[in-house]
Specification:
about 170 residues; three-stranded antiparallel sheet; 8 strands; flat
Length: about 170
């Protein structure tokens, strides 16, 4: 289940009503039944690959307009493109691994935390099309996935640097 704020939840859906979804946490199937308003959900992806998209109806100039699935498609296209085209921030990765190796894993935490908690610079995003990047949902999907990729690479480099530092200490 994906919330509109981008948070992914691993759940077992029990019931979908007019206004809410009832579920149990995937890792605690005997736990409590939890409810969430449909208005907070973007979509539910089921194990068989099917999905339910949740659109919202808004009143604009006395006309009812339904948010189109194309906005969701654009969001997911942005996430897919980030996975394909974004390669990470070389400066953040290098700074983390070098600081960790040359000082210690304790001091290596400083750039790791700082770099993993910030969004990538637009100059590092390597997006495939300027036109698509102007679309709000595409931009949101691309940048959210790019931040996750950057964070994962920074922490991987911290781990590598810590391992190298430990081996160097053991050799000395």
């Amino acid at each position: 289940m994906t919330k509109k704020n981008g948070e992914d939840l691993q759940v077992k859906v029990i019931e979908i009503s007019q206004s809410e979804v009832k579920y149990k946490k995937f890792d605690n199937p005997d736990g409590p039944l939890i409810s969430i308003p449909k208005s907070e959900l973007l979509m539910i992806r089921y194990q068989n690959g099917s999905k339910d998209l949740f659109t919202e109806t808004k009143q604009i100039a006395s006309k009812s307009v339904t948010s189109e699935a194309s906005g969701l498609d654009s969001y997911y296209e942005g996430q897919d493109d980030a996975t394909r085209y974004y390669k990470g921030s070389k400066g953040a990765n290098a700074g983390t691994i070098v600081t960790t190796i040359l000082t210690s894993p304790v001091f290596g935490l400083i750039p790791a935390i700082a770099c993993s908690s910030t969004s990538p610079d637009e100059s590092n995003l390597n997006f495939p099309s300027r036109d698509k990047f102007q679309q709000t949902e595409y931009y949101r999907g691309y940048t959210q996935r790019a931040k996750k990729i950057k964070s994962r690479k920074v922490w991987t480099n911290f781990g590598i640097g810590s391992g190298i530092w430990l081996v160097l200490i053991l050799l000395i």
